[in-house]
Specification:
- Strands 1-2 form a two-stranded parallel ribbon.
- The longest helix has 26 residues, at 28-53.
- The protein has 106 residues and is mainly alpha-helical.
- 11% of the residues are buried.
- The protein has helices at residues 6-15, 28-53, 55-58, 78-86, 98-102, and strands spanning 68-72, 91-95.
- The radius of gyration is 22 Å and the shape is rod-shaped.
- α2 (28-53) crosses α4 (78-86).
- It has a domain at 35-53 and 67-106: Vaccinia Virus protein VP39 (Rossmann fold, 3-Layer(aba) Sandwich), CATH 3.40.50.150.
- It contains 5 helices and 2 strands; from the N terminus they run αααβαβα.
Length: 106
């Protein structure tokens, strides 16, 4: 709940909020749950976008004959996963920093 009284707002600016951890929305478990939910939402959105962005590759006449693919600087691995999903016998390798890949594989 956001205070409307200017005196309370001024007090909050100067002294900070009172007893923040006791409010349910500020408890660590709640914040972690929201962060996790946000990560999963971003991952779903990223996968949907990558499916659209990889369509030109999947539509290539050579695509069915591909056996392996290397995605250099593949970021969160979404493009490679979308392409391999469209061609299950294809083997995909992504080369990038581990942290960038792992966040989207949760």
């Amino acid at each position: 709940m956001v205070p409307q009284d200017p005196k309370i707002i001024t007090q909050l600016i100067w002294q900070g909020p009172l007893d923040m951890p006791s409010q349910e929305e500020n408890k660590e478990q709640h914040i972690e749950a929201l962060a996790e939910k946000g990560i999963h939402t971003l991952a779903r959105m990223g996968r949907a976008l990558c499916a659209q962005l990889t369509a030109p590759i999947v539509d290539l006449p050579e695509f069915p004959r591909m056996k392996k693919m290397l995605d250099l600087g593949g970021g969160p691995c979404l493009n490679c996963m979308a392409i391999v999903r469209a061609h299950p016998s294809l083997t995909g390798t992504v080369f990038d920093f581990q942290e960038r890949c792992l966040i989207f594989l949760r």
